[in-house]
Design brief:
Blueprint: H1 3-25, H2 30-54, H3 59-85, H4 91-116
Helix pairs in contact: 1-2, 1-4, 2-3, 3-4
Length: 118
């Protein structure tokens, strides 16, 4: 496995753990819990899908699984933005997570473009 793949596997796992801690700290209000479950699902799926991409049996399968990672990362950004806009979590607390999710999106887009030969 290439170093970049190993690094991204670790990075997505750390991101998942941060999302889990965010979810655990959310208020028990209904809206916070509903949005929290959404971000928990999408935010932890990035790393799981990337692990699958690293075990892909073909270039097409790698591209497909990496596309799934990108979809989940972008969805996570959406839920985090919504939590911030609805003031469920302060901007100060979310800024690092938003930045990391944005960076993951950029890395995944670059990986897909390279894999596709764009």
């Amino acid at each position: 496995m290439k170093n970049e793949e190993r690094d991204l596997r670790g990075r997505t796992k750390v991101f998942s753990r941060r999302i889990i801690r965010l979810h655990s700290s959310l208020p028990r209000e209904t809206v916070a819990q509903v949005l929290g479950k959404q971000v928990l699902r999408s935010g932890t799926s990035i790393g799981a899908n990337y692990r699958e991409a690293c075990r892909a049996r073909s270039k097409a399968e790698f591209i497909s699984k990496t596309g799934d990672c990108l979809k989940e990362a972008d969805e996570t950004l959406y839920w985090l933005d919504l939590m911030q806009e609805e003031k469920i979590v302060s901007q100060r607390k979310l800024s690092a997570l938003l930045d990391e999710a944005d960076q993951l999106v950029a890395i995944l887009v670059a990986s897909l473009n390279t894999s596709r030969g764009n």
